[in-house]
Amino acid sequence: MPTPSPYRSLPAERRQSLVLHAISISREARALYTQRLISRGGGFRAVTLNSWPADKLAREIVRMKAEQPQDELDLLHLLYVQLEPMIQIDFLDAAGVAHEKGVMPDDLQPPFADEAAVRLASAKVLEQHGADGARYLHTLARYSATGWPGIDAVVEKLNT
């Protein structure tokens, strides 16, 4: 069985809260997910879905697995940069990467740190954040491996 994406490895309740936040702050996100549910069939009509409260819609989105890979990345970014940036802050601090409350400067080019700094930062994140830290490292390996030399080896070691 393939390893789930870092997003899919989150508990359903956590995925629901991320989707709920996304559709609550963005009309575009709500419209996009509504359209995805309609396209999956099952008898949903736009007028019905648009009348649902955000929490009910978020539950259905997660239940139907309507999130696509780009959505998963966006939702993980929402989690690690906007809602709960402490893991990213700890990682960036330990790696010696410039940031403002976990947000790296737009002009920063990969690789963002050397392999030794990535190993050090990974160890710190694992020590301080446990399973959530491991999920964060899997996220970096999956979506930003070129920016973090050696992150693949760190994650491979976690998987064994």
Describe the overall structure.
The protein has two domains: 12-67, no CATH class; 85-159, no CATH class. The chain is 66% helix and 0% strand. The model has no long low-confidence stretch (mean pLDDT 95). α1 crosses α5. With 160 residues, the protein is mainly alpha-helical. The chain is elongated, with a radius of gyration of 17 Å. The chain has eight helices and no strands. The protein has helices at residues 12-25, 27-39, 46-51, 54-63, 69-83, 86-95, 115-143, 151-159.
What can be said about this structure in brief?
By secondary structure, the chain is mainly alpha-helical.
Labels describing this entry:
66% helix; elongated; mainly alpha; 2 domains; 160 residues; 0% strand
Beta-strand content bin: under 5%
Q: Give the domain tally.
A: 2
- Structural class call reads mainly alpha
Number of strands: 0
Taking pLDDT < 50 over at least 5 consecutive residues as the criterion, the unreliable ranges are none
End-to-end separation: 15 Å
Please describe the biggest sheet, giving its number of strands, its sense, and whether it closes into a barrel. none
What's the alpha carbon Rg, rounded to whole Å? 17 Å
Q: What sort of overall outline do the alpha carbons produce when their principal axes are compared?
A: elongated
Give the averaged pLDDT, no decimals: 95
- The number of distinct helices, counting runs of at least 4 residues, comes to 8
- Which percent range fits the helix content? 55-70%
SSE run: HHHHHHHH
Oligomer: single chain
